[in-house]
Fold this sequence. Notes:
Chain A has 294 residues and is mainly β. Chain A has 2 helices and 23 strands. Helix content of chain A is 11%, strand content 48%. In chain A, the strands form 4 sheets. In chain A, strands 2, 3, 4, 7, 8, 13, 14, 15, 16, 20, 22 and 23 form a 12-stranded mixed β-sheet that branches. Chain B is mainly β. Chain B is built from 4 helices and 49 strands.
Amino acid sequence: MKSVAIYILLLTILLTSCVKTAEYPIGTDIKRPVLYSFINNNEIGVQLYWSRLLSEEGNKQTINNATVMLFEDDDYKGEMAFISDGYYKMNSFIPGANKEYKLLVDVPDYGEISAETRMPNEINPVFNLTIIEDSSSVILNQVFSDLAGIENFYFTNVKLLLYFGNNVIDTTILIELSSPMHDNLYNEKGTLFHDRMIDGQNYNCIINIENYYFNYYDGENHEHVYCDSAIIIPQFRIINKDFYHFYIDVMIQNYNNENAFSEPYPIHCNIVNGYGIMGAYFEYSDSLKHIPIH
Amino acid sequence: MNVWEAIKTKVVFMKQKILVFIFLLLFLNYYELVAQNNTISGYVTDAKTGERLIDAGIYDKYSGAGTYTNEYGFYSLSLKNDSARIVVYYIGYKEWIKNIKTDTSTYLNIDLDPVLMLDEVIISGENNGINKNSELKTLSTKEVTTLPGFAGEKDFMKTMHLLPGINAGSEGSSSIFVRGGGDGQNLILLDGVPVYNTDHVYGFLSVFNSSAISHLNIYKGGFPARYGGRLSSVIDVRMKEGNLYEYHGNIVLGPVSSSICFEGPVIKGKTSFMIAIRRTLLDIITRPFMNFFSMMNDDAGSLFGYYFYDANIKINHTFSDKDRIFLSFYSGKDKLFSWQLNEFSMGLNEIDNDFNWGNITAVARWNHIYGNKLFSNTGVSYSRYKNGTMNLEQFSDYQTGDVFKSYLYEFNSQVQSLSAQIDWDWRINPANNVRFGINYQNMYYSPGKTVTKTLNDGQFLVESSIIPNKRSNDGYIYVEDDIIYKNIETNIGINFSACFVDSTIYPTIQPRIRAAWLVSENFSIFGSYTEMTQNIHMLTRNTMDLSTDLWLPSTSTIKPMYAKQGVVGCKYEFNKSITASFEAYYKNMDNLIEYREGANYIENQPDWESLVTAGSGKAYGVEFLLEKKSGIVSGWVSYTLSKSTRKFEELNGGKEFPFKYDRLHNISIVAIWNINENVNLSATWVYYTGTAYTLTEGLYPTIYPDGSNYGYWAQALSERNGYRMPDYHRLDISANFSKIKKRGTRIWSIGIYNLYNRQNPYFMYLDYNDSGNAILKQVCYFPIIPSFSYSFNF
């Protein structure tokens, strides 16, 4: 409410003063390349776009004619192949744990951009389900050992495939981790958290999957219709610092966007001469079958 | 580490240096201490009003020995000869010369007669080898009221912006930034009491009513050890004491505020009072019009306005030549308010908002003279700054008047201090003036308390949140010595302070050294090194300048700020009126705090410490001042070339960035033309580099790792404070026409602020022109503004 008073004050000053505006052209707005790359245990890919001028509207503009080179621990590994729509991929290459990866991208009519990131260490989580009696709810356990003495970051997401006869519905679960992960941030794509509270410990990342995920309400017949079976697909990642900080910063800047009283918030960026992020993660997944109790 | 171990660690570390300092003091003063001298002592006062004159010079023409009066007009001069030819001088007054016998110690009060024209004043007729602190600048009421002011208002704080090394904040603001330091790093004292907020009308005016103020001293460096608690400057504002002999007054009517000041004796020659009250009148004048418009629009009622008031009261009583007491009081408040009453089908809807802030200060002092060389000042004081917001909306039944629905929001924040201090001023001999003392301050911080009360459907709900209150105990002891040896004047001092808060103690030892060498009659070289600590933090926003600054304590995790400053300079006197000075400074500051990136304004945030981050700053520059102090035409030209930066690990990616009010160039030209006894013209021209700010340079898409769209266009921000607003400059002129009337003197002042209508920016924002291109727009508040005011001195 103090904000309201301050708005009133600002309005008062504006209305009662002789306000004049003077225009200053911003000058040569420069579009910069935007690079996204998330190295993982399955592939190395790069997505390239152009940034947008403040005056522009419209969709993302991809960069389709860049040269993208990959280095592993300063060894040149080759040039990435252009696939489509600004996407480039390195074929037949599996990244290694704790290795440093560097991208050098030459963008015609712009110049060179580069980025570096380090692959995290591997962990090997174990997934299992705990059935809750007399209920369709189920607990997903994701047990892993945090590596002691270093800062680790994690991402977790759970997909559900629900089988209603021959129909399959694909959905994800909104995960809110309980204590002690106090400052996790989440959205429908998954949840990020760090190891500040669990450094070096064996940790069970528990996710409650309530029974309402396994049914829908049939308004005509006034009843809940449960799926015949469900496949629970946990996606658990150990992510690196760049990945974590980028998405945390995007969430915060997005949240603060409507608040004139928040401090400017820059987004973490490890792209030299450009925008975006180069991150890395190891992903672990499983497929767990569950038959809900009606 | 417990309290005593912490103290011991620090003291042991400095023990040798303290012992060397004491030995040096004794060694230099031994001969003088045991020598047999006779002493003349007393007060220097204005012959017409009885006001004590501060920093008046007194010297003996025969021996060349001399001294200055202290903050209370006291002097003590020890002489070896049996006779002396005493000369007393003070700017704006005729020289006083008298031959006296000094075969015994004598108590001698000296009255100086004021002069009307400055060219009659002789500034130190003969050089007595004394060189006052070159880093001290004094502003008198006469200077301030002669110069043009914003909308005709004469203001001490605004006049300080014209001095080298002192930067202004945003357009119209009275904030001051001294040598790259923040606005909260200035120790602003009103009769020795700290003032925590100096703004009226959001900084367009300061709390210092020029009708009530005698003068203002500002130290930008070379701080004597008796001052502590802030990093960047000491601004010592002194109220008038009141005329001991006659009743006089002053009425000022201006477009923004009007004031009345009245002073005079309670007991002639012994007790005097001074009362000055100031208030805006615009809200009173416009109220009937607002009621009229409200009636025309069929409103049940509405009111909207703004006002401020302040009152200065001072009483002093002289018990004897040895004892005197002072009581000073200040109270001021600003309020922005709106009220509206609407009728609807069920009843009345009332909306009431107000936003207010204000200060109270009070001090009681006792001056006592021991013998004829030792002066003491004992005082207790209280200071409080408070700001608050109230928003109320309620619905009441038309017939019964009962309120059936309401929402009340209140926010209050305050800082209070209760202080006690004793200062001694020991005038050992003309070459040696020792000061020592002790100061204790109990601080109370209430950064923010929010209460909401809701009545709905018969249910009453009260919620509150509070930023935890804190108390701290701060204190310091100091000793300093002004030593004059041939052509070298030094001030060597040490300030030992400690802050007790949250079961943590922060002890510091702050050396203060200043020296000046009078190379020749006209030329002097000076330098200083000072270390300062500040236990109280002011947290300001990087994005906008409004009264959202908060005073916060040091805590167990937020350490006190610390600064080290070195200054070298020189001064050349072309003649008794024209001087040129040059100074170079370098300052380091540690433990500064800023909001973290993305932090919201900390209202309703109990854990404020997690929203701030600590870092360091540095500032360096050169200052040039050419000054003509007297004559038909007087004034000065000042130029500052400087740089001020900050470095925080958690801001701007850990890279150094410009301070928001870093101004590479700062130029002020001030000219006063005394055409005759009744008419003077003045002009000021200021120029400075634009304010630094952060801008969004572009937008880019965000995606998830699987390539799907995140749905947000991220803002690519520039380097923190990486952009500059256009440079600021403006020209102000004014003319004062005085005429002696039957009962007093009336003065018409007319002026023009921003004569050539420069559109200086207040803030910048992004917009689009008709072609759809992004452009930067600026909001300018003050175009050319003519003004007039009327004052009557009786």
